[in-house]
Automatic annotation (TrEMBL), chains A, B:
Signal peptide: none annotated. One of its GO terms (molecular function) is transcription cis-regulatory region binding. Residues 2-56 form the HTH lacI-type domain. This is Transcriptional regulator, LacI family. The keyword Repressor applies. It holds the Pfam family LacI.
Length: 330, 330
DNA sequence: TTCAAATATGAAAGGGGTTTCATATGGTAA
DNA sequence: TTACCATATGAAACCCCTTTCATATTTGAA
């Protein structure tokens, strides 16, 4: 690939001058500038940003690490975050963890090696040590969606406990008296908080909290929802509603109920968090708490960019508003 | 950040030795190696991959450029491609074009500046000039999904014309006699081919091709599907089926029919390409050609990696099999 | 005309690594 | 012991670019 040395040689000037032309430095004679520019175009010169980063100590690259890009919730976060980053001339590198801790850790390492300017992280990790390398290397980051317990770090998300209370209260108002919970690992802040909300809502209405109606799995994926539901319905009295802690789990729950010949919502109602891509097609099915995913991405990236550029490194916790959408599943 | 110079100084060795330890070069005394390793750990040293890339001329980074990551079809491609790349120690940089040509062009430029080792491109561009900078700089790339006309470049996708014939023939077999087409810009290969298939299928069955039943918009997005449908139903006889060239368009078509009080499939059937994220929830609605998105990502990345590593730079066109899924919309 | 300030250019020193080449030391076979 | 090869280490050049500092040339105001 052609370098500034090649250009300099052909133009009969020093590499300094070529560099100046490329960076629009004012102190270059028009004639010289024209000559160099012509060569740049003719040779198809493309600067090597890795080389400049070496001296500028800036890569203009921001990494975004997410659990699963095929979940529209995360896809929206990524797209909006990327948009925001682009508008300020940053490129986004993305990492998909598949809810796998080791992959997350590897990504963080790789990204630090690439000297990213900042990181947006929706962690699977539950321990604060995951962000230690970032702090050690002074790399600004913002947590999104999930928090890390014990961390006072910047974070953008929703108020999960409150929203869980809201949706469970809605079920109660609908006359449900046996509301089960199907959720994922409590180590992930959002699921912990949603469970808390579930319990508070039941207590607040004087409803009994049945052990058999509380099923906590590992990961927020379909298979887990499916298995927990079957398990629950084998071992205990049938609930009249299930609060499911996220959309993918809800798919599994629904499929399990179908297999067992329960009708939704006639036999068992379902309410969950998050949405699918089909919003506008066929009235969507699940009653759910809709998080402002795109806004989360934008706001989190904005916060991160401020840290990077403005040096505004104050911790900040931002909680956005969600929407309760009542639909056919209840 | 700590560099090999810092380590070298503290260890009382040369940077060469530090570099050797880091890269597991055999000719280092055990004692020296241990001392250096200890310091590497203690200081939290993280190598600067940009600096090594400068000399190795490899970044171990592959870029993936896609039209819209919130469409599950592309999300699947990205996830599987990333997975494959990771397994061979490559990091993925991703760019979302939003079907915008200028953004695509910018991404390619930025990525070349970053000296990516290769590129996976699902282009919005229709002109071969988009890939010229890649060729000029000798950067291996593979087209995915959409081809670029006149290009003999490597490509992984499906046989769009054939599949379109298949799904239209299905509608015909169902007894439909007035099948309309709603599609997007013919400059994009996939839509061009799907239209060809549509026409061939009608001709093959001796059905009349009505001008008013053929609506081609610009981009494959909801709004376009919505508008074209309204337009069609105002200006012409009502079809008994609509073949829609992709999933997002189909949403718009469906919404328009709802607004106009047509029932699907009773009044008008819909068949389309591609799927949504809700496969397993509620029996999915649209009869459609389901492309093997994940496989496309994997295969395309595989092909790209071969070009990068093996130097296997032969052009290759790979066509994968799709599936016709019959569902409620017909 | 004179001289300081503005303009124009280049040499050289990094930035953080890798790699080549030279040199020094240790071990082993003859 | 000698001679040679494997082992161990470092100096220096290089990757491509930016930036500082020095120097040369113009320009414009007095």
């Amino acid at each position: 690939m052609v370098t500034i040395y090649d250009i300099a040689k052909k133009a009969g000037v020093s590499i300094t001058t070529v560099s100046r032309v490329i960076n629009n430095h004012p102190y270059v004679k028009d004639k010289t500038r024209a000559k160099v520019k012509k060569l740049l175009k003719a040779t198809g010169y493309v600067p090597n940003s890795n080389a400049s980063s070496l001296v500028s100590k800036k890569t203009n690259t921001i990494a975004v690490i997410l659990p699963d890009i095929t979940n529209i919730f995360f896809a929206k976060i990524l797209r909006s975050a990327e948009e925001r980053a682009n508008s300020k001339n940053f490129t986004v590198i993305y990492g998909n963890t598949n809810e796998d801790f080791q992959r997350e850790k590897n990504y963080i390492k790789t990204f630090i090696e690439k000297r990213i300017d900042g990181l947006l992280l929706d962690p699977i990790a539950t321990d604060i040590s995951i962000i230690q390398p970032l702090e050690q290397n002074n790399i600004p980051f913002v947590l999104i969606d999930r928090e890390i317990k014990g961390s006072q770090k910047s974070h953008v998300g929703i108020h999960n406990e409150k929203e869980a209370i809201r949706i469970v209260n809605y079920l109660i108002k609908k006359g449900k008296k046996n509301i089960a919970l199907i959720s994922a690992s409590e180590e992930l802040s959002v699921y912990k908080d949603r469970k808390k909300g579930y319990i508070k809502a039941l207590k607040g209405s004087g409803l009994e909290l049945k052990k058999d109606h509380l099923k906590i799995g590992t990961k927020p994926i379909k298979a887990v929802g499916y298995n927990l539901t079957k398990e629950m319905l084998k071992s205990s009295a049938v609930p009249d509603a299930i609060f499911v802690a996220n959309n993918f789990l809800a798919i599994g729950v629904y499929n399990a109920l179908q297999d067992l010949d329960f009708k939704v919502p006639a036999d068992i109602a379902i309410a969950c968090f998050d949405d699918f891509a089909t919003e506008s097609i066929i009235p969507p099915f699940f009653t759910s708490i809709i998080q402002p995913a795109s806004k989360m991405g934008t706001v989190a990236m904005e916060l991160l960019l401020n840290k990077i550029e403005g040096g505004d490194s104050n911790r900040k916790k931002i909680y956005l508003k969600s929407k309760l959408s009542v639909r056919r599943s209840t």
